[in-house]
# Entry
Amino acid sequence: MKSSVQHRVLSLGGAGPEDIRRILQAAAAPADKAVWALKIKISPPGMSAWIEPVWLQSAAAALGCGPTSFCFDTVSISTLGLETTAALGDRAVANGLDRVSGLRPFVAAGGEEPPDPERGPGERVAGLDGAGALGVLNPVRPDPHFGFRGVTAELGVGMLAREGKLALHRQVRPQVDTPLCAGCGSCMVVCLYDAIALKGGRAHILHERCTGCGECMSACHLEGLTVEDKQDLAGFQKSVAASAVSVRASFPGPQVYLNLLLGLDSYVAGPGRRMALALNQGRLLAGTDPVAVDQAAWDLLSEACGGSIRNWHGYPTDPAVMLAEAESLGLGSREYHLQDQPSG
# Structure
């Protein structure tokens, strides 16, 4: 059965609060006074905000958020002090997301939780108590393990605590193809974890420090870095799909998923072999089925760019295994009906 995906083409001025309100109202019926947890992504330091406060205000109104609803993000897998819940909260303040009308203050989650042997690999991050409804507002961006980062990956990885994220990423450790390594050091520049060293003029992975983030694979101009085993990448995507199923089930109330296709050209200047990817106009895609919303986004971007976007991040891959596994596990359907909203 095809899932419905709302599609909105934006004006050249970008997304406005009315665009967010209209697409969310069409995608999901308001749940009067429900406690919503709105998952967003805080942009890295030095970058403009990926999610605007006025968008969240419109989302809260469109979804009928109760007074104790909130927006949140989780810390990254960095373990060298580069990211803490406090630092994440500071970035939220800098982006104006600490005080959004209709929502209680921003929640930074997932950084200081101690390892819990009883916590399953797909259990959502702590700190979201009281929330029964879930909204995911996701800025689509390139990713070395999925081709792009959509709402399904945000469910399966982005809503876990740091330990859960690390457990998943350890499945996709990179390796150096020594004959292809020129010893240029590009991979060392992008590694946040000091997990790469030069030995004998060639890169060497220090796996005791490596988190499996994948940035080095895209930075290598000669394709000398890849995952240790291609099957590991497929296994990783399947694990993320299973995690997404578990996380989604932890929210008994209504759910809605929004992919924002905005500012895609800002990723072109990245290291290594990243391909150029841009849309003439931004798009919004929303629905209650995360698999369908992701499949529609991938298809739309591929069509708009005249072919495959597997090299968007630089390391060639796509989300096919993850979405197929998610579909088989009952998270959603890859078949969808695109419903175009009138612009203006």
Remarks:
- The first helix runs from residue 17 to 27.
- The domain at 3-169+242-340 is CATH 3.40.50 (Rossmann fold).
